[in-house]
Amino acid sequence: MQISRDTRTLYERIGGEVPLRLLVERFYRHMDELAEARPIRDMHAKSLKVSEEKLFMFLSGWMGGPSLYIEKYGHPRLRMRHMPFAIDESARDQWMLCMRHALDEVVEDACLRDELMQALYGIADFMRNRH
């Protein structure tokens, strides 16, 4: 992977709030629609609205935009908050599948897409709490 020379934040590079909201909306749509993602979909509430808003707020700050999640909920403590769920390699890969589809639909810049996939994979892999 080639490192981007672009010094803007990921939030700026993706285009700010509107494309980020679209990314998150598409991510959860894929989670809802892909049979391969059924196990991780079943870990969520019937309505994905709360999860969608929380992921948007988290990614906003994580990508260098407004720290919406921290302002509302405090430190994300991602791993701790996900401990009640059995997250193994399969769950990580299902999450990443949904994110890959969403990124392919929303992010036109291939370099930025690859950079985001690599960074998000690191987060998804960190969430694993089962072998």
UniProtKB/TrEMBL annotation:
<keyword id="KW-0349">Heme</keyword>
<dbReference type="InterPro" id="IPR001486">
    <property type="entry name" value="Hemoglobin_trunc"/>
</dbReference>
<dbReference type="GO" id="GO:0046872">
    <property type="term" value="F:metal ion binding"/>
</dbReference>
<keyword id="KW-0813">Transport</keyword>
<dbReference type="InterPro" id="IPR009050">
    <property type="entry name" value="Globin-like_sf"/>
</dbReference>
<dbReference type="Pfam" id="PF01152">
    <property type="entry name" value="Bac_globin"/>
</dbReference>
<dbReference type="GO" id="GO:0019825">
    <property type="term" value="F:oxygen binding"/>
</dbReference>
<dbReference type="GO" id="GO:0020037">
    <property type="term" value="F:heme binding"/>
</dbReference>
<dbReference type="InterPro" id="IPR019795">
    <property type="entry name" value="Globin_bac-like_CS"/>
</dbReference>
<comment type="similarity">
    <text>Belongs to the truncated hemoglobin family. Group II subfamily.</text>
</comment>
<keyword id="KW-0479">Metal-binding</keyword>
<dbReference type="InterPro" id="IPR012292">
    <property type="entry name" value="Globin/Proto"/>
</dbReference>
<keyword id="KW-0408">Iron</keyword>
<dbReference type="InterPro" id="IPR044203">
    <property type="entry name" value="GlbO/GLB3-like"/>
</dbReference>
<dbReference type="GO" id="GO:0005344">
    <property type="term" value="F:oxygen carrier activity"/>
</dbReference>
<protein>
    <submittedName>
        <fullName>Hemoglobin</fullName>
    </submittedName>
</protein>
